[in-house]
Amino acid sequence: MPATLAVKELEAALFNPQSGRLDAARIAKEMGVPVATIAGAVGRKAPGVRKSPDASSIQQSLRKLYRVWVTLVDLYAGDRLHARIFLNAPNRHLENRAPIEFIEHGDLAPLEMYVSAMSARQPT
Q1: Structural domain spans, the chain
Q2: Model-level pTM?
Q3: pLDDT of res. 124
Q4: SS3 15
Q5: CB contact set of 74 (below 8 Å; sequence gap of 6+)
Q6: What is the pLDDT of residue 77?
């Protein structure tokens, strides 16, 4: 399956089919992390995010996670396993912190900038 097709299928899988909104539980499953991690990233408590994983109040923050995840999967040519490894491995460009640490603490800006820079360096 071409990487572009894999990314398109991934993008659709992250949305709740009934509401059409991003779904924190689906994002957590795709990234291989607990919903509590996504809740921390969006500045909410886990029980509330589990109850309403596609709440309109968390959509803005979920969009940031969505962009990071979809970009990583695209950079790894659709290989989700390697994208997950990237999230969990210490990275010298991020002060030897694993990208998942930024997600856990809701500090997405450095990760967004780094992933964007990685994407900008890719040949088209």
Answers
A1: 3-120
A2: 0.88
A3: 47
A4: strand
A5: 3, 7, 119
A6: 87
